[in-house]
Amino acid sequence: MMSAITLTDRLSLATLAPAAERPGVSGPAVNPRALSTGMVHFGVGAFHRAHQAVYTEDAAAASGDTRWGILGVTGRSAKVAEQLGPQDGLYSVLTKARDATSLRVMGSLRKVAFPGVDSEEVLRTLAAETVHLASLTITEKGYPRTPQGSLDLASPAVAADVVALKAELSGGGFAGAARTPLGLLARGLARRHATSGAPFAVVCCDNLMSNGSVTRGLVLALAEAAGAGQMLEWLDTAVTFPSTMVDRIVPATTEANRREAEGMLGLRDEALVVAEPFGQWIIEDNFKVPRPAWDRAGAVVTADVGVFEVAKLRMLNATHSLLAYLGALRGYRTIAEAVSAEGLAEEARRLQRNDIIPTLTAPPRTDLADYGESILERFANPNLGHTTIQVAMDGSQKLPVRILGTVIDRLAAGEVPQSGALLVAAWMVFVYRGRDVNGRPLVLDDPVADMLRAAAAGSEAGLADRLLAVREIFPAELADHPEFRAAVAEAVRQLLSEVP
Questions:
Q1: Are residues 285 and 173 in the same domain?
Q2: Which residue, of 136, 302, 399, 481, has the greatest Cβ tally within 10 A?
Q3: Per-residue DSSP letters for 33-78?
């Protein structure tokens, strides 16, 4: 018989048993108490909790291997640690299909650390021989790079982490809280090298082209800046950086979502995440250490991630951005509203079919036109509530990865990508106007927002030229192409007339 609980109780190990018996509720797939920590994850936000943590728990359940509990590491805020600490690391995933909702309690995240106070614990964990890998979802802006892609040594945060890494290498003891995720990772790897020297794997799961190579290059650059000679040799021979491609729509959790989950679970879950039913994970088979049986949980482990990666970033993420900027400007709150609005789905199809697909090699057993339609169908799920503003954030970081490669490839083929120009123009008008067609404000959430506002300031007539001149975003080969410039300027002119 179920024991009585009140709706004010929080999800935790103590309250889990009766909650798991409620209709529509499942999980955890493994006993959280039986899991030992075998991996560290940097960026323990909603996406990780709805994606890699789910695959990892399913892998443990499928294989019976309980070595893969996760130590999650927050970003600059302690918020997630404060949410999950009282819940013993437990949280739930509210899966929203078009016609059904389910709730699954997750137990793979065994502890959450905030670098501001827990950096030493993270370093010890990374060095432990029972821990074999680290993974990352720190978003595009979490990788401290110059416009040319090298480590941004001029960044005060990076400079501070280089000093701390030098202290770690010298054996001088704990050098204080880390300033960047990669700085903390590099210090942990230095400690591992100095103690056991056991092999390791770093698995990047962010939307970056060749994300494993990018991460490796930045970690090596940190080590070089700190003068880590012997550690560099070890990194080269014992540490691998598999590339990955990840896909699952994870909108921001709302208070309405929390109330719905509370009604299903009978408990309050402050760390709830919301997701669509679809999920995909492609992982490069590049490990010298044990790893979770992710392939038994539905992930694809392959020698070549690149063809999947390029198709997803260009097809799904670029389409997402087009709908976000055009939809936001036209007053649509969610991506589902935007893709259902007159003309916007057709704009998305033109982008995919005219500009993107001609630049791609199809992944195995994939029809790219059908893949494009499946993307639009996923975006149209009205139960997700994925907002245009959420997708529109960090445009300066996303545009180069999502669309500018496609533009460069089409220009090299002698074609002017008109839909690609429209996407770039929609972002420019979003930055410039700061409001939608109804006069409601549009928040510019971008790490270089001040620079963008300054570059955009001025007359409407010169807007395209001023923003194309921002070399941190637009390479000269693209920005100086006369026909592309003209296409962007015309699209900007048209959009400005729609959003007076």
A1: yes
A2: 136
A3: GGPPEEEEEE--SHHHHHTHHHHHHHHHHHH-----EEEEE--S-S
**138 and 225 both lie in a single domain:** yes
What residues pair up with 246 in beta bridges, in sequence order? 281
Contacts for 89 with CB less than 8 Å, ≥ 6 apart: 32, 72, 107, 109, 110, 111, 112
Question: What is the mean predicted confidence (pLDDT) over 207-216?
Answer: 96
In a domain, 4, yes or no: no
The rounded mean pLDDT for the chain is 95
- DSSP states along 276-300: -S--EEEEE---SS----GGGGT-E
pLDDT tens sequence across 63-84? 999 999 999 999 989 999 999 9
As for how many domains the chain has, the answer is: 2
Summarised one tens digit per residue, pLDDT across range 169-189 is 998 778 889 999 999 999 999
- Say if residues 406 and 338 touch (Cβ distance below 8 Å): no
Q: Give the pairing of strands 101-106 and 25-26.
A: parallel
Stretch 92-121: mean pLDDT, rounded? 96
Instruction: Tell me, yes or no, whether 404 lies in a domain.
Output: yes
DSSP sequence for 160-225:
HHHHHHHHHHTT-------SSHHHHHHHHHHHHHHTT---EEEEE-SS-TTHHHHHHHHHHHHHHH
Q: Which of 302, 336, 368 is the last residue of a domain?
A: 302
| E strands, 347-490, in order | none
Structural domain boundaries enclosing 434? 306-498
Instruction: Describe the crossing of helices 229-238 and 211-225 by its angle, rounded to 10 degrees.
Output: 160
Going by pLDDT thresholds of 50, 70 and 90, the confidence category of residue 1 is very low
253 domain residue, yes or no: yes
- Of 302, 317, 339, which one is at a domain's C-terminal end? 302
Q: For residue 102, what are the contacts with CB-CB under 8 A and spacing of at least 6?
A: 24, 26, 94, 95
pLDDT at 173: 77
- Check which CATH number belongs to the domain holding 478 and give it: 1.10.1040.10
